[in-house]
Amino acid sequence: MSNIDYSDKIPNNVNLANDRTLQRALEHWQPRFLDWWREMGPNDFASVDVYLRTAVGVDAQGWAHYGTVKMPDYRWGIFLADPIANRTIGFGDSFGQPVWQQVPGEFRSQFRRLIVTQGDTEPASVEQQHRLGHTCPSLYDLRNLFQINVEEGRHLWAMVYILHAYFGRDGREEAEELLARHSGDVDKPRILGTFNEPIEDWLSFFCFCYFTDRDGKFQLKSLAESSFDPLARTCRFMLTEEAHHMFVGETGLGRIVRRTLEVMKEIGSDDPEAIRRRGAVDLPLLQRYLNYWFSSSLDLFGSEVSSNAATTFASGIKGRPDETTQYRDHVCSDSTFEIEVPDGRGGVVKDTSPMRNAMNEVLRDAYVRDCEIGLKRWNMHIKRAGYNFELKLPSSRFRRAIGAWANIPTDLEGRPIGREEYDRSLPGWLPSASDRDYVKSLMQRVVEPGKMAAWIAPPERGVNNLPVDYEYVRLN
Ligand code: BYC
Fold it and tell me: How far is 353 from 337, CA to CA, in rounded Å?
């Protein structure tokens, strides 16, 4: 296992000290990153002590050290998973050939585009969550938010390292731009839609971690298959950290459901108004938030049929998650994929695409199946509590802004409907202004160790075997 050197200004396991030019370039970028963190990160909490994990190795077991840190002192570093000996290209036209340690010139711009897109999402999410700390439902949750924030910061480092180390001057310029675009900025927004959506309450935050971080899982898994080995190794280690972010989303939403069921039992009613009077989140309200964040996150997979996707697969740039274990045909040069697209007359028609062009859709399908898992669990709790209510994912055609279904009005089941009916129904399908006001009214900060806001149940256990009432953040 390669060791991480913490005596370096930039902790790393890539032998940065041996490449003085690269080291200097990254040390030049480091203060800019810290300026960005101070300005756009959770800056009102710069002086508080947070119980955080930091990577000390890249082994799946025992890679993290836990301790109390002030966030601006967090040791953001560059950590790549260990190389796999004799690794060969796992998909596309060059299947079976040795992987690349440098970027082939002919694929440079496609690689750069993907790495920049990936890198852009990381600081974007920190910006989106920048003020959430003020309304935390507990110290446990506050700590989890900050853990996610520092790790998204580290994921930015992961991409900036690749840009600096392998893309020369272009890469350095892109690294500057990653700090210049901002979530929701009118002139310089973040690249992908979802990362410009504000996250102003914790229900949105948990939905974001559940749905949007899960896109991160699928995209990182695809890039972890890349023939460009340093990128693959970087993404493999990022996935280790990413798992916690989805855990926060899944358990956060699960705890909300649990609390709502408790309230429903106490009052003997599932009437949303009665539940709201008790300060909990009624299930139809939760459903509208799920509809919003799921449909937004589906767009992150790109178009159903995409020549970019075909090129990146054929060239060995971006594969499918778990390419080796999940698929038998790794070349896909003559297979096809069936998709349903609008027929232009208000109906649906089946279309056949070459498999390579449909890779975004292959990923999106796998993502949707993964999203179902949490809903099944929550629905089981609802059913066991004796209620006849089922949380559902809307159709992947619903409210799309990218791809074949972009701007096609459909209902939640994906049936095309008239524009007027759509406009009339949408407020019942997505969080309304009054839903948002209600959720906002719940966002009162709770910072007594072990205490939880009234709309969320406590977690089953604390962090790293500590009790739930541990003082995870010392607000001084
Ligand atoms: N919004 O051929 P198309 C994460 C653009 S999340 C705006 O359909 P392609 C995280 C697209 O860029 C994972 N624009 O798609 C989670 C292209 O523009 P250009 C992030 C969009 O290229 C939580 C054009 O439309 N990682 O890590 O096959 C917290 C036509 O594109 C959108 C990645 O995304 C959109 N939603 O695939 C923190 C991986 N969708 O270039 C972190 C890297 C598409 O023609 N990116 N467009 O101007 C990719 O793999 C691909 O770029 C995409 C699009 C899957 C995003």
Answer: 5
